[in-house]
Amino acid sequence: MSAINAVEKGAAAVGAHLVRDVSLPALVLHRDALEHNIRWMQDFVSRSGAQLAPHGKTSMMPALLFQRQLAAGAWGITLATAVQTRAAYAGGVRRVLMANQLVGAPNMALIADLLADGDFDFHCLVDHPDNVADLGLFFAARGLRLNVMIEYGVVGGRCGCRSEQAVRDLAKAIKAQPALALTGIEGYEGVIHGEHAISGIRDFAASLVRLAVDLQNNGAFDLAKPIITASGSAWYDLIAESFEVQNAAGRFLSVLRPGSYVAHDHGIYKAAQCCVLERRSDLSEGLRPALEVWAHVQSLPDPGFAVIALGKRDVAYDAGLPVPLKRYRAGILPAEGEDVSACNVTAVMDQHAFMTVAPDVELRIGDIISFGTSHPCLTFDKWQVGCLVDEQLQVIESLHTCF
Predict the structure, then answer these.
(1) What angle do CA 374, 375, 378 make, to 5 degrees?
(2) Taking the domains of the chain in order of start, what are their residue ranges?
(3) Beta-bridge mates of residue 339
């Protein structure tokens, strides 16, 4: 009996066509939108006088996306964990801002191994004296010096020192550790919500810059031009504006860290982008959704109701359910997509999506539906392989993730 070759979910040969040759469901990235987004954000950040370190944890595609972002001018790549950092290094990335605390000896060992490469520029966050002491002891024992940045947080938020005084005290603790170099200060504004979010974010950015100036004036930093960084994928324009207004780039290396922009979405980041365009009249065009998940109509058990072969194992559902976009007839070329946005996904199970079918939409078993997503981070991490397609929906490159 011959061996059966394993087939990775979503794998497709270059030259395959989505409606004829690809096993579905499949993760799909559209090249034209993807390349537009990379150019758009790099141009926005550069015109703001800042540097871009896109958050790679969104896609974890070093070979495809990280290298494209770096080639377009990105200063480095932001990541969240030591394992992600190792994957990025293996994919050719040589500057990482780990916007998270490096905790635990095994994780410290992963970074220590990478620092043996003198060309690897790595910075991680600290927000507590215990972590500072542990890092200082670990890297001193290995004869290495670790770059750390102080994380400044908000009350009720995520990580980070909760007061300006705590930041100053932590800077003194870092100075007492010869194996640590204080290279900057970091904040994350994405946890600020509510009716007065915009003013809260501006106040937070102002406080971040004020702290950076205070630390610099007191000789706390080990870089002549320290790093000041913030910005997720929703409020990056406000952070860029605040840094510009306060001339942060004049004294610091200002770094913005949005990540989801590279794929964008049809949900929460589409809404956030609309707000950016409303705030910035100088931006004539925004980001474009590049990410979709394609799947078959599997069952039509009741009038006006379809079951799609797509579920929680395939697409994000934490910030909105998949959005039906177009219907294609399987195997029929040229592929003509019919608008099915009037249909609506009402629920998802592990491998099934329940979809109400609009009265003017005719479906048959085996039809292909393209779906938009909300929150690309939690769609990418469900896939090992995806498809990069051109305008004719032909696969031009296989995409490999490293989660």
Answers:
(1) 120
(2) 7-33+264-403, 94-258
(3) 326
Q: What is the pLDDT of residue 7?
A: 64
pLDDT, tens digit (0-9, with 9 covering 90-100), for 334-371 = 999 999 999 999 999 999 999 999 999 999 999 999 99
Residue pair 361/344 in contact by the 8 Å Cβ criterion:
no
Distance between CA atoms of residues 83 and 60, nearest Å: 11
Please answer whether residues 182 and 123 qualify as being in contact, where contact means their C-beta atoms are separated by less than 8 angstroms. Answer: no
Q: Tell me, what's the pLDDT at 3?
A: 45
Domain 7-33+264-403 class in CATH = mainly beta
Structural contact between residues 96 and 79, judged by C-beta atoms closer than 8 angstroms: yes
- For residue 8, name the pLDDT band (cuts at 50, 70, 90): confident
**Residue type present at position 392:** Q
How far apart are alpha carbons 401 and 378 in whole angstroms?
A: 13
Give how far Cα 372 sits from Cα of 199, 263, 270, Å: 32, 11, 11
Q: Which residues pair with 323 in a beta bridge?
A: 372
Q: Phi, psi at residue 224, to the nearest 5°?
A: -65, -35
Cβ partners under 8 Å of residue 66, min gap 6: 56, 77, 88, 91, 92, 93
Residue 193 banded pLDDT, cuts 50, 70, 90: confident
CATH class of the domain at 94-258: alpha beta
pLDDT at site 359: 96
The answer to whether residue 1 scores a pLDDT higher than 90 is no
329 touches 315 (CB < 8 A): no
